[in-house]
Amino acid sequence: LRLAAGLVEAERRGELLLHYQPLLRLRDDSVVEAEALLRWQAPDRLVPPDEFIPVAEETGLVVGLGRWALQQACGDLAALALPGARLAVNLSARQLHHPALVKSVEAALQRSGVDPASLIVELTESAVVEDPDAAQSVLGRLKALGLQLALDDFGTGYSSLSYLLRLPVDILKVDRSFAADLAADDRTRRLLGSIAALAHDLGMSVTVEGVETEEQLAAVRAAGADTAQGWLIGRPVPLAELRTRLLASP
Ligand code: G
Ligand code: G
Ligand code: MN
Ligand code: NA
């Protein structure tokens, strides 16, 4: 409850911030993309999202936080002013089903003036599964704005191949539990190779999350994935550090 009360004030007090985790494009080993991850600088400590996102989700506060994150990421994208750079923002189930979502995404794009194609919106299958028909319609309207859609945490929980056919997804983000098993387990490597082939066949690109070792990265390359994300590539960092990384990239 204290947490929820603090969260209400967090945005007004300017205590929210975004860190950006870089992604490696395997085709040319360049960094052109990053995922925005919310942080809350509470008066006494930096609160990680796994502590406050679930609370925010339950109380509905996530709608406001999410809108703030979208606007901030679009503003950051404009401030980067690097052609080709792309930023991804996470959407929660509550946000997906909020009636004002499409309008607020549209407003964030217009206000910042960024190319809609440089914004990626990530959502999980669990956000879709509650009401797939409604989700499909909202995602169609989001896609019509010109942005890219990513299916997050793929391969866990609610996975259903039918979502891959029904939803207008551009990027499949394979859950980090797969990366963890890559080095030791040949069957996981084969499964990842098959997932990548399937996704490519359907016109989607593939990101593998949670890449922590060179061995895992080599397996991700061998499986034919397009992009790698994880601590080996980089930890989430403030925008200025991301900018340096993007500028230094081949
Ligand atoms: O940053 P990790 O480092 O701890 O993120 C934990 C979880 O919080 C992830 O599952 C991520 O999807 C979620 N998360 C991070 N930032 C946002 C955000 O801006 N909006 C929503 N809805 N979820 C977020
Ligand atoms: O949106 P999503 O649930 O995918 O959020 C990414 C989460 O994964 C964040 O909590 C982020 O801090 C975490 N993460 C990113 N890279 C790694 C990694 O290499 N290993 C582990 N264990 N977690 C990671
Ligand atoms: Mn994500
Ligand atoms: Na994920």
UniProtKB/TrEMBL annotation:
Domain named EAL: residues: 1-250
The entry's protein name is Diguanylate cyclase (GGDEF)-like protein
Q: What is the lineage of its organism?
A: Bacteria, Bacillati, Actinomycetota, Actinomycetes, Motilibacterales
